[in-house]
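From the pipeline queue, job 12 of 40. The input is one protein chain; the requested action is below.

Action: predict structure.
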Amino acid sequence: MSAPLTTVRLDKWLWAARFYKTRTLATKACDLGRVEYNGQHVKPSRDVVTGVMLRIKTEGGEFEVQVLALSDLRGPAPVAQTLYAETPASAAARAQARENNRFGLPPMFTREGRPSKRDRRELDKLQQRD
């Protein structure tokens, strides 16, 4: 039997906690600044320890979580959810965003055909692309 983990690479933990489908996507998210470790943008090789706060931006929304346990193996979703605790403010913000997006895109984006250059720029502003 192996000793319990004291640290895990950030990209491995994000993958094991099921925030990203692959380690490659987790690494890319770290490189693009979509993951903050105690308020700072970090590299994917950063060691994660229990008790730190992470802010993670995914397609599912923006999560603010506290690391409760470490794992470098991807398991079932119920096990992955025991690795972290989402803050109540984060859960409320994601619920509000879901409610706002429930009705779909605003009417200005319901045109048919390809978006114009202006439409693309407006989409980029809304999605806050880097």
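Job complete. The longest strand covers residues 61-67.
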